[in-house]
Specification:
Elements (H helix, E strand, L loop, with lengths): L1 E4 L5 E5 L2 E5 L17 E9 L4 E7 L3 E8 L2 E5 L4 E4 L4 E5 L4 E7 L5 E8 L9 E5 L10 E5 L6 H4 L8 E2 L4 E8 L4 E5 L5 E8 L1 E4 L2 E4 L3 E5 L3 E6 L3 E8 L1
Parallel strand pairs: 13-14
Antiparallel strand pairs: 1-20, 2-3, 3-4, 4-11, 5-10, 6-9, 6-11, 7-8, 7-10, 9-12, 13-15, 15-22, 16-21, 17-20, 17-22, 18-19, 18-21
């Protein structure tokens, strides 16, 4: 099954200095909104004005993955420390038993970011954060940003490089694909898994379906997902059970 969701079908929320495009039910976007796709519970594109902040209160049992697209953002979660995030950086807040306050704040310039919220395999545990600076473990076209599979853990291979994926408490992978016009990427998966791809930039063809910037593509029942770039394109892909 393949479903393309166009930007006009998404939820669009506005608060002071913050705009959100929501692919799944979130805050006031609940009417006819899908609730999740596999373990992917939230996928929001967030636009922040200068000196604006996006805040979350009392979140628990969630893996919050943030990927900065443009600008700079300071990420803060309780007393776990502050992280300055720049384009290409990936940040994970594993909320565990609960985070009272998490904030993503801009300075004197606007910023754009993506957030993916994943349901962990098990609830509980102390909150944790992780930071992956802009790096590329698998080459320009295929970057694994975060993973819940032990085989992808840099500690398992004793590599520990800056481009290694951040650990997740969910059986999921979050990838970034960057393709030139005419380029192709193949993402292996399993037929019983749920793949969700977001076209961040450009225009692509996925398994016979065209998708422009801002489109989300929900896929299941496939053992490989092949992406063809019709323009220079960037995608973020979540593969989960």
């Amino acid at each position: 099954m393949i479903t393309v969701r166009h930007p006009s079908e998404l939820g669009h929320l506005v608060q002071e200095g913050v705009k959100l495009d929501c692919h799944f039910a979130f805050r006031d976007y609940v009417h006819s909104a899908p609730v999740h796709w596999g373990r992917l519970r939230v996928l929001n594109r967030i636009e922040l004005e200068a000196d604006a902040a996006f805040r979350l209160d009392h979140e628990s049992a969630m893996e919050i993955v943030t990927l900065v697209l443009e600008g700079a953002v300071v990420a803060m979660a309780d007393d776990l420390g502050d992280s300055l995030l720049k384009p290409g950086d990936c940040h994970v807040v594993s909320t565990g038993d609960g985070v009272a306050l998490a904030t993503w704040k801009t300075g004197g310039a606007p910023a754009s970011l993506l957030q993916l919220w994943l349901l962990p395999e098990e609830d509980g545990g102390a909150p944790e954060i992780g930071l992956r600076r802009n790096g590329d473990r698998f080459g320009h076209q295929h970057a694994l940003l975060a993973s819940g599979f032990p085989a992808d853990d840099p500690e398992e291979t004793d590599q520990g490089r800056s481009g290694d994926p951040l650990p997740l408490k969910a059986r999921a992978r979050v990838l970034r694909l960057t393709l030139p016009v005419g380029g192709q990427a193949v993402v292996p998966t399993y037929a019983d898994r749920c793949v969700y791809a977001l076209v961040v930039a450009g225009r692509v063809e996925i398994l016979g379906h065209d998708a422009d910037v801002g489109c989300g593509i929900a896929i299941t029942g496939c053992e490989t997902v092949t992406v063809h770039a019709l323009e220079p394109s960037t995608l973020v892909v979540c593969d989960s059970d």
